[in-house]
Design brief:
Helices cover 40% and strands 16% of the residues. With 244 residues, the chain is α/β, with parallel strands linked by helices.
């Protein structure tokens, strides 16, 4: 990370967290998951959540008084100045275990969710098939978003327009639904660029999420093209404390 981006990352991190430190409001949140399975996987610890922990996290969020909403409903609330009480459940990467384990839990609990899909990787090992994505998209609980075509770094990709426009078009052709939301692969300040945001806007995306950990309040939502998300792994210590 170069010096300018390092300074920007620190400034944004501080700006995003000031209201959380100064106030006790139940600010709305977006939670990020990747792989959910009852069995240990080869995924990095930050990308793996056991099925039991997944259900406990959902219980914990509900017990805190949050209401699970879709990304579209959350954005409407933010536009109306409502920054509290809502939770969006998000997934990245279209991992194949989602369909078998996480999806039935969400379906049984009637919880909306958004799944960000790397469209050109569908059908690859450990990635859901096109058929499963099409099936998910038919469920009113599901919103499909783009995660580029090939899970590229948006700050470094030389063919970025093809990745952003192409993924949107491929997913719209597959699902028959408008694709409006985007997730940056890796998602740190170092993985995005001003150019990326301009292409996203031209392509017709209305939001983009990163991995800067914060809730949704006035400062952290000033740009809809770098919304913060909280990694589900951040909840694991809370669950462990509750078990003692």
């Amino acid at each position: 990370m170069n010096l300018k981006k390092r300074l920007l990352s620190r400034m944004l991190g501080a700006l995003y967290r000031i209201p959380e430190k100064g106030l006790s409001k139940n600010y709305s949140i977006i939670i990020m998951f990747h792989s959910v399975s009852p069995y240990e996987t080869a995924d990095a610890p930050s990308c793996y959540c056991s099925l039991d922990a997944f259900q406990q996290i959902l219980d914990h969020i509900k017990a805190q008084g949050y209401r699970f909403v879709s990304m579209d409903e959350c954005l409407r609330s933010l536009a109306n100045g409502n920054y509290t009480g809502q939770c969006v459940i998000s997934f990245d990467d279209a991992m194949d275990n989602f369909y078998q384990y996480a999806y039935p839990v969400l379906k049984a609990r009637n919880i909306p969710f958004i799944h960000y899909v790397p469209s050109a990787q569908l059908g690859s090992p450990r990635i859901m098939s096109r058929l499963k994505i099409a099936d998910l998209s038919a469920d009113a609980l599901c919103t499909i978003g783009s995660h580029t075509r090939n899970h590229v770094n948006c700050a470094q990709c030389m063919d970025l327009e093809a990745e952003l426009y192409g993924s949107k078009q491929e997913l719209e052709d597959l699902t028959g639904r408008e694709i409006k939301h985007f997730s940056y692969p890796w998602g740190t300040i170092d993985d995005i660029s001003w150019r990326t945001i301009q292409i996203l806007k031209r392509a017709g995306y209305v939001s983009a999420v990163g991995t800067l950990s914060s809730s949704l309040h006035f400062f952290s939502t000033m740009s809809r093209y770098y919304l913060p998300r909280i990694n589900a792994a951040a909840y694991l210590p809370l669950l462990n404390m509750g078990a003692r």
